[in-house]
Specification:
The protein is of the alpha/beta class and 441 residues long. Helices cover 56% and strands 9% of the residues. α3 packs across α4 and α4 packs across α11.
Length: 441
Amino acid sequence: MFDNLQEKLERSFKLLKGQGKITEINVAETLKEVRRALIDADVNYKIAKQFIDTVKEKAMGQNVINALKPQELMVKIVHDELAQLMGGEQAPFNVEGKPAVILMSGLQGSGKTTFSGKLALRMKNNRKSPLLVACDVYRPAAITQLQTLGEQIQVPVYAEPESKNPVEIALHGIEEAKRTGRDVVIVDTAGRLAVDEQMMQEIAAIKEAINPNETLFVVDAMTGQDAVNTAKAFNDRLDFDGVVLTKLDGDTRGGAALSIRAVVNKPIKFVGTGEKMEAIDPFRPAGMADRILGMGDIVSFVDRMQQQYDEEKAKELEKKLRKNEFDFNDFLTQIGQIKKMGNLKSLASMIPGVGKAIKDIDIDDNAFKSIEAIIHSMTPYERTHPKEMNGSRRKRIAAGSGTSIQEVNRLLKQFEQMSKVMHMVATTKNPLKIGFGARRK
């Protein structure tokens, strides 16, 4: 995401390369290219102009200190203003109450139902006990879709297939949550192909009846300025609390993410970053500005890791590592957790300095496929006794996994090296000593 915008901004900053100081002439030339990049990314024209005026005012008022070059100073100013344009600070998400009620709204096809499931899984991973409520009584199979998602993430779904009254269903869903001890209720509502009066009346009636902690407007980021216009229409009628941008991993130019906060004056609270149920991130303006400028977003990366962190399993794994008993079953579990974190290239781009390095490299999401095939071709005994792999076992595993003996040998060697390092880290009180020791050698 934002690849095109990122490249164009980089080119505009290069105009300042080699300049000894910031002047009105070189700033004007640079910002002309920045404005063009923003408009190409489908940012609202008035917002782009206002953004450029603010950056120019701040740039001309700055003295370039010795430690910074004009190019670096301009990147910093643009970064700070991008973050400010998108809201400045990360918006809070209110899930206080017994139960906390979250109302989803948006057009049909925006990814509202799928996002409801993703949010439920995130709540569950944060030790909440969510309940999904199916209030879309119009779209064929909408209830079934939500129930399928609920089964997938093991979260119950409240539905009344025979009822055509979404207000009553929502109220009954909240009563069910109280009765069963659920502390978060996520109400999925009907969407339309376009904004219409019937839709607005219905969603407004549901909101008034259930008085939600959070009313979220879900919008497809790939629709660009149309997303911003639709958000404004909804907000004028519904006065929602925050925006959810879905499909931000797609071929989106990013204009919605940059414009929507300024137009509707409501924060973006979450972004959907992939098809997997775990692919949801809280929206951090500074982190998004980092990504746009190719600086990574380590906070979001750590957040993704924490969503997959299981304290009990982590303690069990630490014990096994200390005893040097890490085996292929454990390795398979770790691969599963990495895969749940989302698209591999998207993950890698969150690490500062990595995004640019892998820009032109194709990272296949099926990179673990051959490794998993090899492990699945092992017997239970072989998985727990990696050192017992003789030639005949390796030959059989290669044949069973559709790989070569060389690939099996390579995996076994890499696994052995990795196990040694992990055992060393788990048994040392100061892991930094490992690095210093290796360096001295």
